[in-house]
TrEMBL record:
Keywords: ATP-binding, Cell membrane, Membrane, Nucleotide-binding, Translocase, Transport. Residues 10-228 form the ABC transporter domain. This is ABC transporter ATP-binding protein. One of its GO terms (biological process) is lipoprotein localization to outer membrane. Transmembrane segments: none annotated. Pfam families: ABC_tran. SMART domains: AAA. GO terms for molecular function: ATP binding; ATP hydrolysis activity; transmembrane transporter activity. One of its GO terms (cellular component) is plasma membrane. Gene3D superfamilies: P-loop containing nucleotide triphosphate hydrolases.
Length: 229
């Protein structure tokens, strides 16, 4: 993409979050500001407890900050509530977590169809895109398998397919390979890079692995609730 034509997808200003535990106030995010351009691939690294998951949850509309602003393009997502927030999340953001959180009783195909069914698309319209994205992540021959019949890496591929089936602009992945061996982690990262290249997908990926972070376009380091680099 031409540098001069890059557009800011996410603009975060002075985001703070604290929790109150009994008498104690725990400051988890301390006036974090950051911008992510459309099409960027960003790694978020930092020690355990630095605030990475909390930041991802706020960026994804799953949690609210104590203060600060989060804009997607020109939209103030903290002003969204209830069904409007649900719709925004469903259409704009795909999530992948460390533990795939697939529904064990449903097949890979049904799991991937779920976001479209929740969005009110009929079975017929949900099936085609779900099949196509499962092909794209290399699971065209595993459509009818349930999560328990798939390897850890395959389960995470299904979770990635489910995150992308609504064609979100942004993928948020919180330690997507934290539970996998290094060879399988490597495959998942290659898949994320392929999806980034092929779809121009913007992604923010939390990882503890420096070598995996090095493959992303930019690394943001969190220390004690703030971004230092
Ligand atoms: N609901 C909560 N109530 C109180 N404290 C919380 C709550 N959620 C998170 N915290 C605290 O916020 C801090 C940051 O947590 P967070 O999960 O964002 O860190 P992290 O950088 O993602 O860590 P990890 O790499 O271990 O997942 C931690 O000290 C945690 O104990």
């Amino acid at each position: 993409m031409n540098e001069s034509r890059k557009e800011v997808l996410i603009d975060v200003q002075e985001l703070s979050k604290h929790f109150v535990c009994g008498e104690r106030r725990v400051e988890v995010l301390r006036k974090v500001s950051l911008q992510i351009d459309s099409g960027e691939q960003v790694a978020l690294v930092g020690a355990s407890g630095a605030g990475k998951t909390t930041l991802m949850h706020i960026l994804g509309g799953l949690d609210r900050p104590s203060s600060g602003t989060v804009y997607y393009q020109q939209q103030d997502i903290l002003a969204l509530k209830g069904p409007a927030l649900d719709t925004f999340r469903n259409r704009t953001i795909g999530f992948v977590f460390q533990f795939h959180q697939l529904l064990p009783e449903f097949t890979a195909l049904e799991n991937v169809m779920m976001p479209a069914l929740i969005a009110g698309r009929g079975f017929g319209r949900a099936r085609g895109p779900a099949e196509a994205i499962l092909q794209e992540v290399g699971l065209g021959k595993r459509l009818e398998h349930k999560p328990g019949e798939l390897s850890g890496g395959e389960q995470q591929r299904v979770a990635i397919a489910r995150a992308l089936v609504m064609e979100p602009q942004l993928l948020l992945a919180d330690e997507p390979t934290g539970n996998l061996d290094s060879g399988t982690s490597d495959e998942i990262y290659r898949l994320l890079q392929q999806l980034h290249r092929d779809r121009g997908l913007t992604m923010i990926v939390v990882t503890h692995s420096q070598s995996l972070a090095d493959r992303m376009g930019r690394t943001l380091q969190m220390v004690d609730g703030d971004i230092v680099a």
